[in-house]
Amino acid sequence: MTVQTVKILSELVNTPIDKLLTQMKDAGLPQTSANQEVSEVEKQTLLNFLKRQHGDEGDSSQRITLQRKTTSTLSRGDGGKAVNVAVKKKRTYVKRDDLDDEAQKQEELAKRLAEEQAAEEARLRLEAEKKLEAEKAEAAEKARQAAEANVVHDAEQNASDKGAEPVETVKREKAPKKASQPATDNKKSTAVPKGKKGATRHDNDKEKDKPRGRTPENKRGARVNLNGDEEVRRGKLGRKNKKPSKPQEHGFQKPTAKIIHEVALPESITVAELAEKMTVKGAEVIKVMFKMGAMATINQTIDRDTATLVVEEMGHTVTYIDENAVENDMMEAIDYEGEAIKRAPVVTVMGHVDHGKTSLLDYIRTTRVAAGESGGITQHIGAYHVETPHGMVSFLDTPGHAAFTSMRARGAKATDIVILVCAADDGVMPQTIEAIQHARAAEVPMVVAITKIDKEGADLDRVKNELVAQEVVPEEWGGDIQFVGVSAKSGEGIEELLEAILLQSEVLELTAVPSAPAKGVVVEARLDRGRGSVATLLIQNGTLKKGDIVLAGLQMGRVRALLDENGKSITSAGPSIPVEILGLDGTPDAGEEFIVVADERKAREVANFRQGKYREVRFARQHSAKLENLFSEMGKDEVRTLNVILKADVRGSLEALIKSLTDLNTDEVRVNIVSSGVGGISETDATLALASEAVIFGFNVRADTSAKQFIERESIDLRYYSVIYNIIDDVKQALSGMLSPDLREEIQGTAEVRDVFNSPKFGLIAGCMVIEGTVYRNKQIRVLRDDVVIYEGELESLRRFKDAVNEVGRGMECGIGVKNYNDVKVGDKIEVFETIEVARTL
To answer: How many CA atoms are closer than 13 Å to the CA of 65, on its beta-carbon side?
Structure first.
């Protein structure tokens, strides 16, 4: 026989031990503690007691059982056997104070099963009723057909005896009138009256013969329908004769299985929108993300990958929305088909700073562009085209300084051919290698121009060897790249360079469709105070005309003015022509693609969509960066920050400056670009600088009158620059001043202990000989024994014979008292040192 304890039994029946012991006591069992054993007989006794307590003999308020049986008889109209339908229902209600979760689930399950059973019984009853009605209708139809057959037979008999009308006529009159009955061959059907579709002419004749108003047969307000049947008006009589209504059913049922949704995800989505798509509460999504290790708020924007993990974790499926559908529809509507003709090549001149790129183009253009650049270096992307005896060529002159790496990268992407400029006296330099890498990344062919060949120290073979080391092999050495030696002063080799360019363009077979809408790239953009946004565009295909609607990156607008590189107004420009346009609603980023669209509304819709998408992605990236910085900087010292508000004349220079300044960041100091933009310095910029304690840098721009007054009144630091070297050097110097200085120790002197004696006033005194440098009284000391530091502290006294002195020089004897230290021995060395701060630089 199996024996269990009270504790095990309480766990099996899921009842507290105290309550179980009370029930056992009421049942007359001897158990009083949790460790006592309970036999099978005692368990049966307890079970019988509980049944009696909660059963019929117990309190009637604890359990109520309701039983109901309903029987209904459905009779058949044709006299067939009736059908009996019996429905039995039994429900028991139990009043329990401590109803656990499992009991609730079982009760809900039983309730759903009962509802489903009741619905099934109602469905079976309805089917039985419909079956009976169908059988009744079938029996009635058979009876009608039989009666009709008898009438036709009698009519034929009378016609044969009396010579009456044909059988068809009698049959037509005696047959029940139906709206859908077709006309016979002898009589044509008439038009159907309004409101009585399908009625024939004979029906209309019958309608005329029907009694109107109250008649003896229609005393109580009954009306006669088209078939001659009497219909009872609504009222008491109608209610008496009304047929019993059919049993009603619920239109909705509680779902028994989890619904799996197909969630369509864009590039980024807020937690609230994601919860709405899955039809759950936002708290559920936040809880799931927290379990996955990601903390989020209800209004936080998350990226597509994170949202995908959350949706799959919650058991739903994911589909991705093509957010570029708006742009794709617009692009499909643009027709670029047409007759393609040969176009001029777009050539980008790249190379190291001060290797003669702009001077080379000056000779070709016969102008002085370099003299107009600050410091004699190119800080913008210059775009222009020239007519040569060999054909038209469009040039892009990119800066060579390291700060303009991104601008050179854009120049390589927007070009057909790259002229790699390398000075014959300097050879291959860092920016030369970068230019080679950009050209290869863009898969653009190169032509090498070795400049300054007329200078002393020019060595063409050395330059070629250095370029071969970078896998740029000349044709005469078995490679595929043309090398041309040129001089911007004498013009030597210029014609050969142009021929090499045009030869390379013929190999590329460059074509364009002038009749198509224009498209190309934004070379540069700036904000002009009087004209607004001014963008320099390079047309790669089609023709750009004044009045066209241009979509460039996040900006759009109608072309109000079209200017060539010399500032002259023109009406149109074809492929490979650089132009300046006015009319955009903002300054697009350099390197953005532009297209001409026909529908201004569609262009504005795409621009707004791009701006919203850019803003959502930027916010998501910023939030992610904040969280990453929060965890990465925990436990570290505070980072010192230099807040900067940066304004520049053109977009390309602004991006280059931001890149150069952020590259100066270290683990201890960093540059925080509070605000940046193109155009002059306004009062808003000055107010922002005051609030954020920032320095204002103006690169080739100036502050307006109101901004100047505000800056002077609030003493805000404002600095103007025209050369990028200067601004980088000043910021580097400012950051160096914010760095914590290095601490260095400098040994001032060393004294050797020759004797030790006691002083009633100072305690243990070391008699020393200064062997190096000078021993000072107010300096820190170290005690060395066998060249090992055993103590570090301060001097308490320094005496020369009986006099207290501040310093003792080399070769002199002195008495030294060490503060809080009495373990000095003969042979020890006392080292005097000083800690000094050394400024650090970046």
So the answer is: 6
